[in-house]
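Hi both,

Apologies for the delay on this - the queue was longer than expected. I finally got the flavin-adenine dinucleotide-bound model through. Below you'll find the protein sequence and the ligand SMILES exactly as submitted, and right after that the structure tokens for the full complex including the ligand.
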Amino acid sequence: MDILVCIKRIPDISGQVTLDASDTDIDDSSLGHTTSAHEECAVELAIQTAAATDGTVTVLTVGPAEAVEQLRAAVAVGANDGILIEAEDPGAFGAEDIAQIIGDVIRDRAEQGQSFDLVLLGNDAADTGDFQVGIRLAYDLEYPVLTGIQTLTSGGDSAGSGGSGTIEARGIGPTGTEVFALELPAVIAVQEGGVDPRYPSITGRMKAKKARIAEYEAPEPGTGNPRIGLELPPEKTSEVTILGEGPDAAGALVDVLEEIGVIRS
Amino acid sequence: MTLVFVETDETGQVVLTSAEAVTFARTNAEALTALAAPLPAEQPSGHSATQGEVAQRPEGCSDESLRVEAAVIGALTEAATNQLAALGVDRIHHLEHPDLEAYSAAAWAQALVDIAPETGTVLASGTPRGMELMAHVAVRTGARMAANVVAADEGGLLRQVLGGTAFERLVLDGDLQVLTIAGHACTPEETTATSPEVLDYELDIAADDLRTRVVRTEVQAVDGNDTSGLTQARAVVGAGRGVGSENGFGEVLELVDHLGGALGVSRVVTGLGWRPHAEQVGQTGSRISPDVYIACGISGAIQHMAGIEGAKTLIAINTDEESTMVQRADYAIIGDLHEVVGAVNEEIRSRRG
Ligand SMILES: Cc1cc2nc3c(=O)[nH]c(=O)nc-3n(C[C@H](O)[C@H](O)[C@H](O)COP(=O)(O)OP(=O)(O)OC[C@H]3O[C@@H](n4cnc5c(N)ncnc54)[C@H](O)[C@@H]3O)c2cc1C
Ligand SMILES: Nc1ncnc2c1ncn2[C@@H]1O[C@H](COP(=O)(O)O)[C@@H](O)[C@H]1O
């Protein structure tokens, strides 16, 4: 099964953020970059599924030239090749645009002889969290789509030739694990929790440096980004009451819990 | 008109997050109407609706465009109808069909599209179902969608981005806007009770839309993947890397028991395989709003904090006084969590006598 995984370069945020001069984006000049946890799991699922079906994994991103780092990081853990759709200012695009751009490139690759049985994405990007690129892409491709999927089992008979075979997908629903059975080709948005992303090996890192990255230019934004600006929540001033140090403070804590009224009698 | 997709639980009650979404729709009706094109809503057409009695509108809601209507898929219990009436819903669209019994996002979304207004707002709470359905509805109606909205005024919508670190202000162009409401963005508020009319429909479901239906649900197959205990608990004891190992949960689990609460863990804990992912709290886990959250050996990374913003009282137990969790807490004890939690359990036992 040949699988495409869409990943997005995002700032690696570990604490409070500051805004850039335009107030429409965060200042990421001093931040590292990464991809979302859900997407790392999508890459891992793709690698496992491709290995089980003798298929390939291609990673794709719409982003600045530097996003090639994220593509290479995915190759280092086992993806075969990458597609960079270069957009100087990715923030100018809306979810509709991103889905459309990805859809167009998927069709173009198919014309070039590279077609995908399965397209994986993250459930939601950790920065914008739009929760919709995967679904919009699926409608554009006219493929069925699932979201919140944690594990995949390929249903065999996948010839890796653009859409044969089936796949079983599982995700957590309100009353238990929900199982889906899909005909390929399909789009699936992956949620963290089903698999542990692997670390790159030394040979993986070597391979990543030489990986084939197909390059495209993103068109001008169509629908555009509906964002007017970003706002930061008011800073919380800490008024922590230190109840004490070590086990001696237990009594004071139990007093607090009793006051809140959460101790079972 | 604002149409709210309302989720019900196995007992037929409206779930908390949906009650929040209905309240959001009602308390922000004017802003939502102003943001969508300010034309009166169209009546649903092309469906044979069996109309009940005429709805009484709540006070101050004379304008058709300010109406809040609910859509319930599957069985509609009397309890849910009463809850929705108390929340001030003007009309309930009841969408029931054998083909909608098993969840299929495409089919459920189409049922909502069939009754969606042409102008106005369709919204749901920001649960996995809500997110997924609203995205389908947005594509099918040609609308734009904003996820995790927390506020609305004439200047636009405000929604959580970056895992709750920042808010995005935006305006969705088009006659119809599709939103999901972030969990705990508002508290459910009852109002002058309405007596909503209930509309039943003959639905036409396309075979294509059933390709993505749930073929089976495994209730017990995966060890404890039910997050409802965690999201509904009044007291949650959080455990992070500081617990030390898979076998280090004895004290915290005893405390959970004393509080009749739930265990929540950091991603480090699930990542190391010490506890199942269903117990993870944070940006990629559950978002909780207990009366008290006791974070034991959790540093307070932004992605973890995103899940506990709704906690009314935050208590930290940590060896590091400088950690974000201690700095952000209402109360803290500095020390080894095993010793401290052990002593707390002992104190609770001895006070009980
Ligand atoms: C995209 C993304 C999504 C994420 N989503 C989530 C999420 O949903 N939930 C989540 O939790 N994290 C999430 N994370 C991870 C997050 O960034 C942190 O890595 C994680 O929360 C840290 O877990 P921790 O606090 O248990 O561990 P650490 O940061 O290692 O902290 C351990 C703490 O324990 C204290 N400690 C150590 N020993 C003891 C002891 N004996 N007694 C008391 N205290 C002790 C230490 O002082 C320290 O404060 C996400 C990260 C990314 C990039
Ligand atoms: N610029 C992008 N490039 C590649 N994939 C993307 C991009 N933006 C979003 N995606 C994919 O779509 C998923 C959902 O994103 P979103 O709808 O923005 O929350 C992400 O987890 C990615 O897998």
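Main takeaway for now: DSSP finds six helices and 13 strands in chain A.

I'll put the files on the shared drive as well.

H.
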